[in-house]
Every structure is written in structure tokens, then in C-alpha cells.
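YM 10:42: Adenosine kinase sequence, as discussed on the call
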Amino acid sequence: MASEGVLLVYGSPLLDIIVRHPSAQKLLQKYGLDANSSVFAQEKHQSLYKDLEEKYGEELQYAAGGTALNAARVVQWVLRVPRVTSFFGGVGRDRNGETLQQMTREAGVHAVFQYTDSMPTGTCVTICTGSNRSMISQQAAANCFTEEHLNVSENWTLVEKAQFFYTVSFSLATSPSVMLRLARHAAETKKTFCLNLSAPFLCGKFKDAMSELLPYVDYLFSNDAEADEFARVHNLNTTDRKSVAAKMAAWEKIRAERDRVVVITQGSDPVIVAKGRNVIEFPVAPVPSEEIADTSGAGDAFVGGFLAQLVCHRPIDECVRCGIHAGSMVLRCAGCTIPHTTDLGWT
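YM 10:58: structure's back
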């Protein structure tokens, strides 16, 4: 059984705003959005929020979001033990920040936010059209998180209590020093540090910062597109993903006595896992297309399911199986919303 505070997650907390309506296609056309894409909000998107309130109002769905917080919520959902997961991130001192705090508390996550008055709480609008989704993220207060938050004695106590750490490469854009400090602490105290590549463009844009962090990484998560881009950026001289996984696993490591584990998801294709020189594939049972409500959040759910077993010291095959199952269940929901059931349906 996992203990309280065993996992510490750091990332960008966002309030997810989900719209699913036959007329949502018009929003894509108005704001020049692709049906299945993810972009950062620009000036031309600012009136989108007013459109959502005026045209969809009570039909909008809200959820605690952001890729790192999604994974943390899934960990809590799988394990059903309050406060197994602690979470650090930045939010605004506003209504959305209050809503986010309440939702994370209800999910069982111990969220210790750093509040700011200078920016509003970050949001992610997801426009669902059929099985496609278009995501427009606005980081806002999430970008205001600083290392000072770690210096608060109560917060550092949570760091010392944790045995596992998980963070995402999106945070390289805001507080790479926070990620490096947590990673060094994990290495010095022989704990486990996990990183997600998060998005293909991050591999190139933050190549140097990512390269500095990688030697501390014990578990590296990636999807197929991210792995392909990582291989290109770092000149791994192969497009075979199993070979890419093996080379990522063999990357320089501070704690050389422990093999790095690399996990690459490929949608409905097998999950690739490399540990040391060993590479294994795990089959994925495809979800019927008519049952897929939304693909956003499925990758986060996979990581959450994997981490839920990892913090309980389960074998890798069980971690992967739970990740696949959690991902398949979230595929049937709008956004990374947790199914309203007390039965995980996985053993």
C-alpha cells in the first residue's frame, strides 16, 4: 500500500474548459484551429473565452487539468488513498484558482499551490468535434512558479517525504531550476525521478536544459512523436523506435548502478519499454472508435496508471498494464476526466 506523500508531482496546473456541441465546429473555423491539435493561446484567441460563456454557458465542462496534474489525479483514482500524491504548481488568486484547488482536493491530491496576483490561473480550452479535439492552452500563472516555493519549510518537508518525483518537460520553459533541484535531491537520497518529454517541439527548443536534466532521470516517458523528434534532435541515427528507446535508456546517468527505464507509447500500437539493453513490447487492446469520446488526456492517464503501480513497487509489466487500462478508460471520457466509478476494473 502506498503511503501519504510518497509521490511529488511538479507541473503547470490548468483549469480545463471542455466544450462538446454540434456547433463547436464553428469555433474552429472562427479561430483558425485544426480539429486535432494543441496550441498556446495567442491574441486572436482572447475572445474565445467570451464566446464560450455566451454560447455554451452551463453546457461547458470543467476539470482540473494540465498534463502533470492529470497524471497525479489518475494516481489518486487508481490507489484510492488520499494524499498519496503532493503537487506543486502556480495559480492565480482568482475564482479559477479556487475552483482548481477544490477539484484537486476532491480528487485526493494534496495540492500546495504558489499563488500570484500578477497573472490569472492558467486554462486549457478543449473543443471536441467527433473523436477529434483542439486544445488552446494559456499558461498564465502557471509560468509564475518559482524556486522560492521549495524554500518554504513546510513545502521542503513534502520533498523530503516523497520517494518518487514526476515532472514534465513543459516546465523547462518556466522553472528548470526547480526540476534540477528536485532531480539532484532524488539522486543524492537514492529516490526515483521521472520525466515526461511532453511535446515534440520541447526536445529542440529546450535541448540544452533537457540534456542537463536527463542524467538524473530514472523513468523517461514519451509518445511516438516525441521519441521520433528526440532521436532527430540528438542525432541518434535511427528511426526504429525500439532502437531509439534503447539509446535513450543508455544515455549518461548520474546513478549508474540503476538502469534507466524508457517507456514509449504509440497509441493503439504496442508500448515499448527499454531497461538497460532489454527492450520489450506490450500489446494494447484498441478501443472501438465508436467508444472514443476524446483522445486528450489518454497519455496522461497512462502515466498516472503506471506511476500508481510504480510507487507500490510493482513489476514493470503491471505498471504498463495499469497504464494501458487507465488510458483506455479516459479515452471514453471528455478530456482527462475520471470516470465516476468506484471500480477501476483492473487487477
